[in-house]
Write a structure and sequence with these properties.
This protein is of the alpha+beta class and about 280 residues long. Helices cover about 35% and strands about 30% of the residues.
């Protein structure tokens, strides 16, 4: 049995115990009843699986872009070999939107797939992540922003060096955090009535079970204005890497306002962090 299947089985067993009424509604230490304790255990188990899955994906992106940067260092940032490698890389994961290479001045030398080739020849040294890597020569992951070729996403930018150590430029990979997270959230949502969200510490929603909220800034979203407790825990998550909070919000698929709760954990890459949330109705 895989680790994922083991955790899902654990969650299912706990869910069946609760739904079958096998546990009495009695207070546990701290005033939390058994049903709440079990729901919290399921929430945290599934949240941990979600967090580990996203962290693994970010780690794999890091490994792959590191390998690609070494290849480009040996074969050049442009030309048939670079183009072929980048085309394969761009098609290797559904969340990847595009790849580009830039020279030390920030001019785009090559791009994949075809819809990104309009960037070739443009200077994008003013893009924050590109500017940072050209200056520090260290990899970075950007915040969510509008891409030059259209659409929105996050970029991982990695320096490229020749085998002799000469700085040649950088490789930038744009990807969709929403697509990345959705494949795991949608699977976990089949097993328990929870919703999931991924956000930058500043409140920008990278993924939400309600897809209309992806890409929105929570503090500017009219839907959240009447729920100060919700915005309070978003503020807390700016500095708290893990946490728990209660709040009120609409019941899923309804206009009824119900009490809810959330746990969150953190994933990271280089100097960037994301918060991963699991949300549930309180009973």
């Amino acid at each position: 049995m895989t680790r994922f299947n083991y955790l899902i089985t654990f969650a299912i067993v706990l869910s069946l115990i609760v739904s079958a009424g096998c546990l009495q509604e009695q207070n546990a230490p701290g005033g939390v009843n058994d049903t709440t304790t079990i729901r919290h255990a399921i929430m945290q188990t599934l949240l941990h699986e979600m967090t580990c899955s996203i962290q693994s994906e970010l780690g794999m992106f890091n490994f792959t872009i590191d390998e690609a940067s070494h290849y480009l260092g040996e074969h050049g940032l442009t030309g048939p070999k670079a183009d072929a490698m980048m085309a394969d890389f761009a098609s290797s994961h559904p969340a990847i939107l595009s790849l580009i290479t830039v020279d030390p001045n920030g001019t785009v030398l090559s791009a994949a797939p075809d819809n990104a080739k309009i960037l070739i020849g443009q200077n994008i040294a003013d893009q924050e992540a590109i500017s940072q890597v050209l200056s520090t020569r260290q990899p970075t992951m950007s915040n969510y922003f509008t891409l030059r070729q259209g659409g929105e996403g996050v970029v991982i930018v990695y320096p490229v060096f020749s085998p002799g150590g000469e700085f040649l430029g950088a490789l930038s990979m744009a990807f969709s955090p929403s697509i990345l997270a959705a494949r795991y959230a949608e699977e976990l949502e089949k097993w328990a009535p929870f919703t999931y969200a991924v956000a930058q510490p500043d409140g920008v929603l990278l993924y939400h079970s309600n897809p209309t909220l992806a890409g929105k800034q929570a503090f500017d979203e009219p839907l959240f204005e009447q729920f100060p407790e919700l915005l309070d825990f978003v503020r807390r998550s700016d500095t708290e890497r893990t946490g728990y909070a209660t709040f009120s919000f609409y019941k899923d698929g309804s206009t009824e306002i119900v009490p809810k709760e959330t746990f969150w954990e953190t994933v990271y890459l280089y100097d960037s962090e994301w918060r991963v949330f699991v949300n549930a109705d309180r009973e």
